[in-house]
Amino acid sequence: MSYFLARRIAGFVLTLWAVSIVVFAVMNVLPGDPALTILGLDSTDEARAALRERLGLDAPVVQRYLAWVGGALRGDLGQSYSFGVAVSGLIAERLPLTVSLAISGMTLTVCLALVMGLTAAARHGRAGDWAIMLFSQLGIAVPVFWLSMLLVLLFAVKLRWLPPGGFPGWSDPVAAARALVLPTVALALVQSAVLARVTRSAALEVMRLDFVRTARASGFAPGHIMWRHVLPNALVPIVTIVGLQFAGLVTGTIVIENVFYLPGLGRLLFQSIANRDLVTVQALVMLFAAIVVTANFLVDIAYVLIDPRLRAGRA
Amino acid sequence: MIALHNLTVRTTGGHVAVRGADLAIQPGQRLGVVGESGSGKTLLALSMIGMVPEGLQVDGQVLVKGETIAADDERAWRRHRARTMAMIFQEPMAALNPLVRVGDTVAEPLRLHLGLDRAAARKRALDLFEETGIPQARRRLGQYPHELSGGQRQRVLIALALACDPDLLIADEPTTALDAQVALRITDLLVRLSQDRQMALMFISHDLAAVSRTTHDIVVMYGGDIVERGQTVRVLSDPAHPYTQGLLAARPSLMHRERRLPTIPGTVPQLFALPPGCRFAGRCARELPQCVGTRPPVVATPTGQAACHLPGAGQT
Amino acid sequence: MNARLPVNILIGAALVAVVMFAALLSAIWTPYPYAGIDVANKFAAPSGAHWLGTDQLGRDLVSQLMAAAGNSMGVAVVAVGIGCSIGTALGLLAAAKGGWIEELIMRLSDLGFAFPALLFAIMLAAAFGPSLSMVVIAIAFINIPTFARVTRAAANQIWRREYVFAARAAGMSTFAISRDHILPNIAAPVIVQATIEFAVAILVEAALSYLGLGAQPPEPSWGRMLAEAQTLMYLAPQLAVWPGLCIVTAVLGFGLLGDGLRDISDPRLARRRPA
Ligand SMILES: Nc1ncnc2c1ncn2[C@@H]1O[C@H](COP(=O)(O)OP(=O)(O)OP(=O)(O)O)[C@@H](O)[C@H]1O
Ligand code: SF4
Ligand SMILES: [Mg+2]
């Protein structure tokens, strides 16, 4: 167990380190002069020199990289060029919204996907199965921003049940929750399409196994067998995809926040790009990539928690 | 208690896998079912708990405690499974959920069907483990299937089957996957449990020796037909049907007993290749001209009944 | 499942054919110039002259959708083509050399999976400025690890075959074996993967253009059309419908085709979902 964990942790740290190099290189080294990127082609040499001085860009690349990583490890992500405040502060301010959206989106995704996937498996080959698979096939092809627009058209423009976008802040929890309904649904509908498929095929695989027959012979109800016996055994592929979907979730939130004008990290990312605020962009890209890497790492660990056989094997 | 009338199971292709079986099991009765692979033993058993695989068509009547239950009436079957009849299968490793501690597996029907609380179910599971002879029962409760030996797993499955005190236990080749010593103990356990609990036992096996030690009555199947039946000792010592005679002749001596049955001359034909009359025609040494085309009648024999145009103690 | 298989491919191929036809046709003919502004005719309803009507500047919708199809297919072809070529070459190299080279290539491609395509493209757009070429580069880059993995897995199997041993024994070079024996035999999984990645590329291009990081005005793009339509949602909701349907048609088409091809070639082939 500990050897296994140590290996995984080492791999995780190495990946994060490599990701930081890629991000730093793309944002700082490849484009040439970041001051030029920030200030634009029509800037004067003096202005650029002044900015380079302020951002410490004249130091050697390696030193700048080390300073960035060192700062990041202490929670210091630098000063935002356009907002004039610490990037960490900007992130802290917007994090709750993004995290709420991600959590609600993922929760709804998993619920929808499990219900659809298990239902389809239970009705294998019958009408319900076909309907769910058709939905899933469509869900994979629909871009999340278009689905969002359609939801807005229907529920905000036509029916006027929910706000079309924007965020009223947390002081009014009901209004805040209402603002998150459509984004959550859009995110979950798209994400659950893939997960429902995986759940269905994983469940079908498990349903062939003998212990399911034992459970049936024990007189348990089909629903009980599905949720308590089939699902746990189908969890490994499902968790794998959930982990992979963190990538989709992260990019999905970035897109969704921009569709619904939600002031979260994704919106901040685009504002910073528009403002050519490279320091902030770099911090955010690193953060998003780190989330994806962490999710994949946690999935690796989760396998061991799911399956006692692995626990024994790795002890 | 459980009775089958004219039970027929057809495959999707319309081939008959069980043909018009009549069978009744009385309370406390121990019945053996023997026959080569593919003779329809498992399907016969599955039809008695309403679990014939999807895609197969079941006709005829199944009576459980006097109540007729349609093959697809899942709700009615669910009322009876575990309580009226329970079943254990051949492969004890795969038959247990690998992610659940075996104690919880046995506790599950106790909690769901009998409404016991966690502590009571655990207590009862421990009793069942002890009753089925699982050593160090208390410690085993918390273990996972992969931590147990094959024989212990089969005992866990028996404990699970006994949980709701069924009137009938169907054991489909419960010892085939186990080695000889362990198999012997499991069959003895089944007999003891059946006697102690006044529980009927349907024991399906390839192993004539095991069946003769375990059961009082016997049914011999071939090609989906019940070809002979009667008291186990009498049928096995004085078989009337040529197929039963063949089975016995092909039996290895008890000295170096193998668990797989050596075959009678020829091989069991595929379902679609079975003759329409007597299923055994073509492999039978005593075959008459009418055997291939005409289904033999069930006739009384000195030891019970047989379905044959020419039953008797002839040579094979 | 097997019974559905041909249907899968048929529907997929039909959808792909429609989109491809529109894309190719747009290179030589569209009903109107796609950027042709005709303010007098803005928000025109569908008619014989404008089959799907016009937008807020009176531009013909059908022409824009066709031109956008051309753009979308172009991006996908070039980006997946580049990513597939480099990735396949690396995968072949990894399988042929083994040892630390294989290890290095595979570790690097693991790294690629830390970046969802969209995030990587956003990073490039931020560093180099938004444009369709950045989108192409981003998609190409993200495709490299995917193809490297698929190729290596398939190639490693072929390397174990007897006729490869024979070729080696006959003194054929590693490169020649990779070219003459391995490559032709791994074409199936690579083509399947390419079809699926096509669908992903279309989605990513649309998303980036929607977000303003891809096609720049007046370049036609389904994603950009949707971004414009969003600001007119109360005024002209119909504008938000057609570009989305086009995206779905294209993505669904390639997705179904890829799924179907995979089912008949190798059901266990790794599948990456759209980013
Ligand atoms: N799900 C099914 N679909 C189609 N045919 C089946 C199915 N299950 C069983 N059969 C066929 O029905 C016949 C009887 O099968 P059954 O399993 O009852 O035999 P058995 O006597 O239990 O054999 P064994 O000793 O091998 O367990 C066989 O020919 C088998 O091929
Ligand atoms: S009916 Fe005929 S073929 Fe069948 S067992 Fe009797 S004698 Fe043999
Ligand atoms: Mg059987």
Task: Return residue spans of chain C where pLDDT drops below 50 for at least 5 consecutive residues.
Answer: 267-275
Provide a count of the helices of chain C. Answer: 9
Share of β-strand residues of chain C:
under 5%
For this structure, the quaternary state is heterotrimer
The largest sheet of chain B, given as strand count, sense and whether it forms a barrel, is: 8 strands, mixed
Ions, cofactors and other bound molecules: adenosine-5'-triphosphate, iron/sulfur cluster, magnesium ion
The total strand number of chain B stands at 12
Chain pair with largest interface: A-C, 49 and 45 residues
What structural class do helix, strand and pairing data of chain C support?
Answer: mainly alpha
According to CATH, the fold-level topology of chain C is MetI-like fold
GO molecular function, one term (chain A): dipeptide transmembrane transporter activity
Membrane topology (chain A): Multi-pass membrane protein
Family (chain A): Belongs to the binding-protein-dependent transport system permease family.
Keywords (chain A): Cell membrane, Membrane, Transmembrane, Transmembrane helix, Transport
What's this entry about, in short?
Chain A is mainly alpha-helical. Chain A contains 13 helices and no strands.
Walk me through what this model shows.
The complex is a heterotrimer of chains A (315), B (316) and C (275). Chain A has 315 residues and is mostly helical. Chain A has 2 domains: 72 residues, no CATH class; 228 residues, MetI-like (MetI-like fold, Orthogonal Bundle), CATH 1.10.3720.10. Chain A has 13 helices and no strands. Chain A starts with a helix and ends with a helix. Chain B has 316 residues and is of the alpha/beta class. Helix content of chain B is 31%, strand content 22%. Chain B has an 8-stranded mixed β-sheet, with helices on both faces. A 4-stranded antiparallel β-sheet of chain B has the order 2-1-4-5. By secondary structure, chain C is mainly alpha-helical. Chain C has one domain: MetI-like (MetI-like fold, Orthogonal Bundle), CATH 1.10.3720.10. In chain C, 71% of the residues lie in helices and 0% in strands. Chain C is built from 9 helices and no strands. The longest helix of chain C has 37 residues. The C terminus of chain C is likely disordered. Classes of the chains: A mainly alpha (315), B alpha/beta (316), C mainly alpha (275). Chains A and B meet through helix 9, helix 10 and helix 13 of A and helix 2, helix 3 and helix 6 of B. Bound molecules: adenosine-5'-triphosphate (ATP), iron/sulfur cluster and magnesium ion (MG). Iron/sulfur cluster binds next to helix 10 of chain B. Chain A: It is found in: Cell membrane. Chain A: Keywords: Cell membrane, Membrane, Transmembrane, Transmembrane helix, Transport.
